[in-house]
Amino acid sequence: MITRRTFLETAGVAAATSSMLRAGNSPVRVAVIGTGGRGSDLIRALTTIDGVELIAVCDDYPPHLEQGAKYAGPEAKTFVDYRKLLDELKPQAVVIAVPLYMHYQVAADCLSAGCDVFLEKTMCYTVAEAKKLTVQVTASKRVFQVGLQRRANAIYKQAQAMVAAGMIGQVVSIKSQWHRNNSWRRPVPVPKSDADWPRLERKLNWRLYKAYSQGLMAELGSHQMDVANWFLGGHPKRVIASGGIEYFRDGREVYDNISCLYEYELNGVNGKPYTVRVNYTSLCNNAYEGAAELVMGTKGSLYLTSAKGLLFQEKGTDVVSWEGNKDQPAADANAAIVTAGKTLKLSNDPWAHRGAPFEIDIAEGNDTRDELVAFVDCVRRQDAKTICDVNVGLADCATILMANQSVEAGGWISFPA
Ligand SMILES: NC(=O)c1ccc[n+]([C@@H]2O[C@H](COP(=O)([O-])OP(=O)(O)OC[C@H]3O[C@@H](n4cnc5c(N)ncnc54)[C@H](O)[C@@H]3O)[C@@H](O)[C@H]2O)c1
Fold it and tell me: For 54-113, what is each residue's pLDDT tens digit?
């Protein structure tokens, strides 16, 4: 029986990230490159972190630069060209939130300039770029973190510790999704007749075009597939996926829905290999299930979102075991008992095996701020062990890109060598 006390003790609660900023240290000089939607969120979070001096913001789109400058405050200089920023100010750390197709080049230039780097997810547009960046980061010994903020979220950290401690038994399946009802299309601030409309439209709606974007898998799936990689302690072996543009037939090139089936090969009880299947879907036209992961184990399930985590214990785990042991019959032996109606009632009720939920009631945090606090702390200590390092970023990048490849190829795709 799991009580609140035992699960906290067993799993070891990872409390909200502590900044560990010590008084008397000189501030970390940080610049932000890309001040659109996400860059603005990151700037606002940075301005609340002790020991951060936001020295500059950079964007090549004037309205976004203006917005970034407003959030950053009057002390921050503004730049249109990030290379000029690097040359002139030599920031200690940079936070990069440019469109995906530029991630590699901007990050590589910042590392070459000697900066520590926080790079938004997905790490790179291609696996080849992600591999090159991994080599560069490793050789440079710079502090490097990818912006997969669930790694900083207290609920996910707690849940991962619970899985690692065996509290939901053997993980047998993960079901996750990011469903929204939103076209992703941004309005263009000039009339369609304006000569600049085509350029501006692609600049603002870069997410919709394959030359700049890897679509739903990179923009949304990267978060959930990182959770799967993290919780399962590795990366998938192969994937088969199907996707298309079925609803928003508005000139976009990236899918408006995708369904993936990933297979992970793990070592199970007694080291025997077994397969965990992860079903992932992303939709742009129905928000019913939102963004969540359901991690299912032989003893329970964890339902996770950024704001709430629930543990459902399986009913009947006292008698049902995966492979059996001296105290418990094996699953097939148990099936005989079940069909004889002795211990469990077969039921069509979808909630029959869902015990009462147990909430992971960790005080609410802000995982975007927490991931930046963790990054700045590593920068201060020059500790390369960030909460989401380049190898995590590489695995995440390869994991999501193989799904897009599968859609295009129409078959199973293996994780790249
Ligand atoms: N972690 C998260 O939850 C999260 C959320 C949203 C976006 N993101 C990621 O953040 C990145 C940016 O997404 P966004 O929604 O902010 O896009 P955006 O279009 O709103 O912002 C990108 C900005 O980069 C600027 N830019 C482009 N080229 C530039 C250059 N050469 N120099 C300087 N600036 C340049 C653009 O003008 C734009 O302002 C993407 O990789 C996205 O996946 C992460």
Answer: 999 999 999 999 999 999 999 999 999 999 999 999 999 999 999 999 999 999 999 999
- Give a yes or no: residue 293 inside a domain: no
Let me know if residue 381 belongs to a domain: yes
Nearest CA to ligand 1 atom 5: 38
Average pLDDT over residues 181-197: 97
Lowest-confidence region among 20-34, 104-118, 230-244: 20-34
Summarize pLDDT for 334-379 with one digit per residue, the tens.
555 445 444 445 556 777 667 678 999 777 789 999 999 999 999 9
Indicate which residue's Cα is closest to atom 25 of ligand 1.
Answer: 34
**Does residue 208 line the site of ligand 1, with CB under 6 A?**
no
Q: Which domain holds residue 24?
A: 4-151+369-394
Residue of 33, 38, 224, 396 with the most ligand 1 atoms within 8 Å of its CB, for mutation: 38
Pocket of ligand 1 contains residue 33 by CB under 6 Å: yes
Amino acid 316: pLDDT: 62
CATH code of the domain covering residue 103: 3.40.50.720
State the average pLDDT over residues 188-205.
97
- 38 ligand 1 Cβ < 6 A: yes
Q: Is residue 84 part of a domain?
A: yes
**Ligand 1 pocket, mutate which of 41, 80, 120, 370 (most atoms under 8 A from CB):** 120
The answer as to whether 191 is a domain residue is no
Task: Please write down the HEC assignment for all residues of the chain.
Answer: CCCHHHHHHHHCCCCCCCCCCCCCCCCEEEEEECCCHHHHHHHHHHCCCCCEEEEEEECCCHHHHHHHHHHHCCCCEEECCHHHHHHHHCCCEEEECCCHHHHHHHHHHHHHCCCEEEEECCCCCCHHHHHHHHHHHHHHCCCEEEECHHHHCHHHHHHHHHHHCCCCCCEEEEEEEEECECCCCCCCCCCCCCCCHHHHHHHHCHHHCCCCCCHHHHHHHHHHHHHHHHHHCCCCCEEEEEEECCCCCCCCCCCCEEEEEEEEEEECHHHCEEEEEEEEEEECECCCCCEEEEEEECCEEEEECCCCEEEEEECCCCCCCCCCCCCCCCHHHHHHHHHCCCCCCCCCCCCCCEEEEEECCCCCCCHHHHHHHHHHHHHHHCCCCCCCCHHHHHHHHHHHHHHHHHHHHCCCEECCC
**pLDDT of residue 19 exceeding 80:** no
